Amino acid sequence: MHKVSGGEVAGILVAVFWAILVSFLAVALARLAQTLKATTKLVADVTDQAVPLLADASAAVRSAQTQIDRVDAIASDVQEVTANASALSTTVASTFGGPLVKVAAFGYGVRQALSGRKDDMPDRAPRRTVIVGRTVPASRRAKRNLRGKKD
User: Fold this and answer.
1) In what helix (H) or strand (E) does residue 41 lie, and over which residues does it extend?
2) Which of 16, 49, 61, 81 is 20 to 30 A distant from 1 in Cα terms?
3) Distance of alpha carbon 31 from alpha carbon 33, whole angstroms
4) What are φ and ψ of residue 122, in 5° steps?
5) What sign results for the dihedral spanned by CA atoms 113, 114, 118, 121?
6) For 66-78, how does the pLDDT look when each residue is reduced to its tens digit (9 = 90+)?
7) Which residues contact 124 (CB under 8 A, 6 or more apart)?
8) 8 Å CB contact between 129 and 136
9) How far apart are CA 14 and CA 21, in angstroms?
10) CA angle 132, 136, 142 (to 5 degrees)
């Protein structure tokens, strides 16, 4: 039998160590290859699903832009109608405002004149004024009017 020297034992140990190391690296590389295949498949699937989604999103944005353009046109029309209504209101107020005030004042004056004549008639019952749910007799009203004239 041959005696094994220390150098031969060390060589055998290094060879066994390298064999184990190469085995672990081979397993790690095999798992890395599987992970890369799965990642490639996942990226391909995401791409297949993302392209139609991006097309749908683009169509939705185009549709929203069309609707915004329509709303903008409607808002412009409403603004124009508002300006026209304002101008019409100003024209009507300036045209009819003064004469209507004069007619109202004339009507008020006529009513006051006619009511003054009716108060002078003896056969007429005294007028009563209703103030927030209660009646004020004509005699109290007359006293109040006299107080107001003295001031």
Assistant:
1) helix 6-120
2) 16
3) 5
4) -75, -30
5) positive
6) 999 999 999 999 9
7) 118
8) yes
9) 10
10) 135
Residue 141 CB neighbours (<10 A):
15
Q: 137 Cβ partners below 8 Å, 6+ apart?
A: 126, 128
In a domain, 1, yes or no: no
Q: Which domain holds residue 55?
A: 6-150
Residue 64, domain member (yes or no): yes
- In this prediction the pTM is 0.38
Domain count for the chain? 1
Tokens of 53: 């989604």
What is the pairing mode between strands 134-136 and 129-131? antiparallel
CA–CA dist 109, 120 (Å, integer): 17
